[in-house]
Structures
1.
Amino acid sequence: MNLTDRQYFALKRAHSLTGVVPIGLFLLEHLFTNSKALQGEAAFNAAAAELARIPYVGAIEALGIWLPIAFHMVLGVIIATTGQANLGKHGYARNWQYTLQRVSGVLLVFYILFHTWMTRFDSDYLNSVSAYAFVGEQISNPAVFAFYVVGIVSACWHLGNGLFGFAIHWGLATGRQAQRNASRFAMAVFLVLTIVGLNSLLAFAGKGIYPDWLTKPHGAEHGPVVYEGGQH
Ligand code: HEM
């Protein structure tokens, strides 16, 4: 199929946009929900059940998550396998970042298919008494655990570094200093999301790091708070 320059440009813009909205936003939501595992089995299971009860959830998932991911994935594979290397056009670090963007994208194809197959499309998982325990059981296999680590780091790199590409493609960072700032921001997003993602993975193995100073008293599971004036 031959595309005109305009059509190709529009497709690239749609590819770039879907990477941030909705896929990037979904990744943030996903890491947030998974972090509930730090608060224990009951907290995570309640969060998963809450999501499953969203009205029209099947349609929202299909149109708001699967369709954009399928589009971004298919076009991403085409770009990653046919796009020209841009060696020499940019600095050394930039080239590496761009190469890793493509490599992480290809890794994500395998990871996303594996991960959704093992959870969202697995009837044992969907009907399990405890989603938390089910995932904990899965990652007790070292090979599965290792693949989850690779998948999480790839997704966080791909979104973090992808935000830099997004800022360039949409003209949000044009000057030198603005591009340097965008690059720093992208690496900060990558690091923070990686820590959050890996910590939530460890939480499913009961080994997440959740120090007291990151909690608030009202977040603890306890009975009604009793003040001197009575119950509240
Ligand atoms: C966690 C899921 C994913 C997220 C959050 C995501 C997000 C993004 C973002 C934000 C960008 C930057 C857009 C831009 O440069 O303007 C991007 C670019 C890219 N994505 Fe993804 N993506 C995901 C999955 C995938 C998958 C599965 C592939 C398959 C190969 C892929 C391939 C690519 C490629 C090749 C680019 C660079 C496009 C270019 O050359 O300009 N992505 N992605």
Note: The two ends are 67 Å apart (CA to CA).
2.
Amino acid sequence: MTSVHELIRDAAEREAAMKRGKPIALRATGVSSCDAGLVKEPWAIDRVPGYGPGASLDDEIPGTAPRQGPLPARYIEASDEELRQWIVDAKAKLGERVAILGHFYQRDEIIEHADFVGDSFMLAQAAKGHPEAEAFVFCGVHFMAETADILSGPEQAVILPNLAAGCSMADMATIEQVEDCWRELTAALGPAAEGELQPVIPVTYMNSSAAIKAFCGRNGGIVCTSSNARTVLEWAFARGQRVVFFPDQHLGRNTAKAMGYSEDVMPLWRPHLPLGGNTVQQLRDARVILWNGFCSVHKRFTVAQIDKARADYPGVRVIVHPECPAAVVEAADGAGSTDYIRKEIEAASPGDIIAVGTEINLVNRLQDQHPELTIFCLDPVVCPCSTMYRIHPAYLAWTLESLVAGEQPNRIRVDAAVAGDSRLALERMLAAKP
Ligand code: SF4
């Protein structure tokens, strides 16, 4: 069988696909992408295990990750224009019964059909705010569809057009690993003495499975987004002596550093090692215990890229997402969530030059929306999120036509007990105030 590496590095296919003109692979630089396989259609990748081409290609995929079944030939063989028309027609037939939710990092061919565009939490809130819809087609990744299912009504279906659209960061913390960590950590720290705060509060980033959100809900913990991570850590420190932060070490570290904590009190928990690779004393001295997870898209950004942008474009403003490594966040002029990045760009003056450290589809779209500015991605090599890339118009057309036919393919259902505990952690986040 052909390995994924052979499959995606096939030069002849790359050349043929490039001639067909795939926008993600070629748009920003016109010459290169992080991976030749990006010019392939996702159904070619769905046949082999792994995340497929893009920034998460080499990340380890858990055996339990959902796999997508074969897509009917009609959709694979359709032209781009046919797919577009089928989507438009099916959407018109479905009317307000179905809403399409499009994540900021999706390709433009999906975003043009979206009823709501936003980050994961904004889209889950959109689902919650539309009780009239029978179904939501979530053009994002698996954990986002789970959150939408948790927040939407029990009769409302949340559908992920391609089940292989997971998130490599979310997959870096499984519920079994988190429960093992909690057992070891609470044993090492011991119980709180009378009058003391809790020894440790679990905090999970939105980019985690429903099972981990539920774990936090059950254990006095909370969820955060990249917009409210500081408020959430303040909430946690009002209740606990320390925090264990899942799964993105960079968001945890950057937020705690901005609050004045030094890296000496932020040990890394490596899930395959006893005590996460730490001593009991290191854990006792810790304020934020960071899970060893990361986003493969944002970890590509480097200080060298920032130095080059400043050398090439004197006066450039550099803004990055807090999933980037700490050195990158420190070298940038500003760091914040997707919402922060959008607001910074909206507040810029004509002629300003802005280098952005986040996902390429979003950066390209911001440049399209703001022709009066020069906006470019810090990473000169185009490399989108592998798993977002799996949502192709062919899957959206198939999903919508299935809904028209009365079927609900790829429905994401979160177990009722898990949903209840997750909701607790999400509600704590909504109630947390700066
Ligand atoms: S951009 Fe990073 S965090 Fe977001 S879905 Fe992709 S891998 Fe996950």
Note: The chain has 21 helices and 13 strands.
